[in-house]
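Writing this down once: the sequence line spells out the residues, with the fold written below as integer tokens. This is how one looks:
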Amino acid sequence: MTTSLKRLRVLLVENDGGTIRSVRDAMEKDPYLEYIGSILSPAQVERQFIADVPDIALVDIGLVRPNEGILAHRAEDDFEAGLETISLIVHLSPATKVIGFSNYFLIYPSLARDALQRGAAAILPKQKGPSDWEAWSTWLCAQVLAVGLGYYEPSVDVAELFEEEGDVRRSDLSDGPLPLTDRQREVLHLYACGLTDNEIAKQLTIVAGSVRTHIANIKEILQVRHRWQLVEIARRHGLGRTRGDSQNSTR
């Protein structure tokens, strides 16, 4: 990654002051993210997006209600404000990548499904990063940047939630050949080996933009939302080895 990378502009939808300060302070130190501010409620979303459209919206699913406090118990069906915020942002700005941001995902796994169905590109539990603040800041910024650049992979805990709720959204594919062209199979194999877009492009003598287009098309054909899901499908069909092996074969 180089310093010429365009900074991704991040909006936080959150009404807990401590979380706002923590996220703001973390992102203000990151050279690849630009924290553009926070809004407190769904009612402010439309006005914000008229004035300033972010690349990424980090949305608290369990928005704190007046006099409630962040530790108040919430029922499983009590998150409509946060979920509706995701839906509204996706409607107003389809290009903005929305991240559901809440430790309630770990209490109510069905929220993972609900957030994705509303259009979230990823979910991040607030409390599952490293324990000390500096490490947590680095972890959070890395996760947000990964979503913005299309390289998001869920933590073990979040991946387990997807599995439990059926949110991995794998295609209903048989054990037969994947419905891909030879070039798409090459790209999928190399990506599942762990190569970056630039490394794949160099090995196949194409440009990185073509690699991204191939991956987007593969995701559409296989009916998945995230790149990490492609790795799972590839390995179920015998593709993807180690980085070293990938230099010797694309079959």
User: Anything to note?
Assistant: The chain has two domains: 8-165, 182-246. The two ends are 29 Å apart (CA to CA). Residues 133-149 form the longest helix (17 residues).
